[in-house]
Design a protein that fits this description.
Mean pLDDT: 76
Number of strands: 2
Radius of gyration: 33 Å
Order of helices and strands: HHEE
Strand order of the largest sheet: 1-2
Strand content: 15-25%
Shape: flat
Distance between the termini: 63 Å
Largest sheet: 2 strands, antiparallel
Helix content: 40-55%
Number of helices: 2
């Protein structure tokens, strides 16, 4: 019963929100000018941020990652439940 009541209340809320009177949008409200001004302002601010120097004033150097650790193949044996099995295993350290 509780689930039915919650479901009915949810449906009523959604239906009520769809019925509310909203004014129709008009092209002469200046919305297009606001969007254009926002895009132009964002481009100017983004360009200024992108062309600015780092906070400490020096060039930025990125270190190369270290070379991968040396690896080798080794034959190891293990018990698989039925008997000993020997397989090649790649060992890296």
């Amino acid at each position: 019963m509780k689930k039915t009541l919650v479901a009915a209340l949810t449906v009523a809320t959604v239906a009520g929100s769809l019925v509310t009177a909203t004014p129709s949008a008009k092209a002469h409200d200046g919305v297009g000018a606001g969007i254009a001004a926002g895009l132009i302002g964002g481009a100017i601010v983004g360009g200024a941020i992108a062309s600015s120097r780092p906070a400490y004033g020096g060039p930025v150097y990125v270190a190369e990652p270290p070379p991968p650790a040396p690896c080798y193949w080794q034959r190891q044996r293990y018990w698989d439940g039925y008997g000993w099995v020997v397989r090649p295993v790649r060992v890296c350290y």
